[in-house]
């Protein structure tokens, strides 16, 4: 059982409500998203009418407490929504996920006034929000940020550049990290970071051009430029100089969402490959009758279901606030995203020439899957986190790994 404590740690609880919710999200995805997938790929934009339909269903507020304008629901419901939406359009799921990367730290670390002011409009789908931490020289290394905030009376003044910020082009609100004091030493680089709630319309906030990444067309990131942005004291999120905790707690929770996204991508790619293998004839026989194709499909399904169970398990631990939840989230993100990449690649190979033709919509699964292995902490960072947790359990302290 090591490093887990008992069989109870592996429990997965699913109810009839979860299944009914899954069906409703799938119906939305098939009815609203599916007919627009290639339009989104072509235009690199999600049509406004899709957001309007999502608002009617309350999809923007899944997992956000009703007291703050959301639909409520547990971690599993958010996981299910991420999976079902990503099966059709990972870009749309990422747009909703960007909102959660804003609301999660506000709900966990914000004052009651901040929660009441900023969360309900996002939960109701009235505005979008984003999370601005990554910089040109600081991605998985959160402590490496160069954006600075200096106190000026009752305000903080922010200067810096943020990069790869998903949803920032539409966001009305952003949570932004900045260094408010220098780290005391190399071993404590994580100290001295603070998060702020920033409104898009404030002077000095500029949204740069769209960054043309290889996947997630329809929801590609932008640069955020901060030039002498004055942020009032009441918009400090959490404690000054303790923002590293805000960041890692947010990403620990978001990692399960990325795992669910990857499961959805793998599910979509598998279904396309399986259906194609039944319909496509070669040498006067269906493709699925060839051992080389049949074995690929069996492996795809085995890995897909393993990733799904791992993701649901991590969701259950997160719902219970288990001390094992962080490691489980890293394991789920690591495995599910690499499964999505593998399954998507095999789906292309099963389709042959049709798999690499953009118009068939198969190759996009691989482009989207590869991105999931990088954001919310690259997969090698997840491996480091898992090993550090294991060592800490045994020797009682963290051992630095290079």
Output mean pLDDT. Answer: 94
CATH topology of the largest domain: Butyryl-CoA Dehydrogenase, subunit A, domain 3
Low-confidence stretches: none
Strand content: 5-15%
Tally the helices: what do you get? 11
Distance between the termini: 28 Å
* E-strand count: 10
Work out the radius of gyration. Answer: 21 Å
Main sheet strand line-up: 1-4-5-8
CATH architecture label name of the largest domain: Up-down Bundle
Provide the number of structural domains.
Answer: 3
Major sheet description: 4 strands, mixed
Task: Describe the secondary-structure layout.
Elements: H1 16-33, H2 37-43, H3 48-57, H4 75-88, H5 90-109, H6 112-123, E1 128-132, E2 148-152, E3 155-165, E4 171-179, E5 193-199, E6 205-210, E7 222-232, E8 236-237, H7 243-279, E9 281-282, E10 285-286, H8 291-319, H9 325-351, H10 363-372, H11 379-395
Helix pairs in contact: 1-4, 4-5, 4-7, 5-6, 5-7, 7-8, 7-9, 7-10, 8-9, 9-10, 9-11
GO molecular function: acyl-CoA dehydrogenase activity; flavin adenine dinucleotide binding
Cofactor: FAD
Pfam family, one: Acyl-CoA_dh_N
What's this model, at a glance?
The chain has 402 residues and is an alpha+beta fold.
Name its key features.
Butyryl-Coa Dehydrogenase, subunit A, domain 1; Butyryl-CoA Dehydrogenase, subunit A, domain 2; 402 residues; 11 helices; Acyl-CoA_Oxase/DH_mid-dom_sf; flavoprotein; alpha+beta; single chain; 15% strand; FAD; flavin adenine dinucleotide binding; AcylCoA_DH/ox_N; 10 strands; four-stranded mixed sheet; 3 domains; Butyryl-CoA Dehydrogenase, subunit A, domain 3
């Amino acid at each position: 059982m090591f490093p887990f404590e008992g069989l109870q740690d592996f429990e997965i609880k699913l109810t009839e409500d979860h299944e009914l919710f899954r069906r409703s999200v799938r119906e939305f995805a098939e009815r609203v998203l599916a007919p627009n997938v290639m339009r989104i790929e072509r235009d690199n934009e999600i049509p406004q009418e899709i957001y309007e339909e999502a608002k009617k269903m309350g999809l923007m507020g899944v997992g956000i407490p009703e007291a703050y304008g959301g639909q409520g629901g547990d971690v599993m419901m958010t996981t299910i929504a991420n999976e079902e939406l990503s099966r059709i359009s990972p870009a749309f799921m990422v747009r909703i996920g960007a909102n959660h990367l804003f609301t999660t730290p506000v709900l966990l670390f914000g004052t009651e006034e901040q929660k009441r002011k900023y969360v309900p409009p996002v939960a109701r789908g009235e505005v979008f929000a984003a999370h601005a931490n990554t910089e040109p020289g600081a991605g998985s290394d959160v402590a490496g940020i160069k954006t600075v905030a200096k106190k000026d009376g009752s305000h903080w003044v922010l200067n810096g550049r943020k990069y790869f910020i998903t949803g920032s082009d539409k966001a009305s609100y952003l949570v932004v990290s900045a260094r408010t004091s220098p780290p005391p030493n190399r071993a404590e680089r994580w100290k001295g970071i603070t998060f702020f709630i920033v409104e898009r319309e404030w002077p000095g906030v500029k949204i740069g051009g769209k960054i043309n990444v290889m996947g997630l067309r329809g929801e590609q990131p932008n640069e955020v430029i901060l030039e002498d942005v004055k942020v009032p004291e009441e918009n400090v999120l959490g404690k000054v100089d303790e923002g590293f905790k805000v960041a890692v707690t947010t990403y620990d929770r978001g990692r399960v969402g990325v795992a669910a996204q990857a499961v959805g991508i793998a599910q979509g790619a598998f279904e396309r490959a399986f259906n194609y293998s039944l319909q496509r004839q070669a040498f006067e026989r269906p493709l699925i009758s060839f051992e080389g194709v049949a074995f690929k499909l069996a492996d795809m399904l085995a890995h897909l279901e393993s990733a799904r169970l791992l993701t649901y398990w991590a969701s259950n631990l997160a719902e219970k606030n288990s001390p094992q939840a962080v490691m489980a989230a890293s394991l789920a993100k690591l495995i599910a995203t690499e499964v999505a990449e593998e399954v998507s690649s095999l789906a292309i190979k099963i389709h042959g020439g049709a798999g690499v033709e953009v118009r068939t919509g198969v190759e996009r699964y691989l482009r989207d899957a590869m991105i999931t292995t990088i954001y919310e902490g690259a997969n090698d960072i997840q491996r480091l986190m898992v090993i550090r947790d294991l060592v800490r359990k045994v020797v009682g302290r963290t051992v630095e790994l290079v």
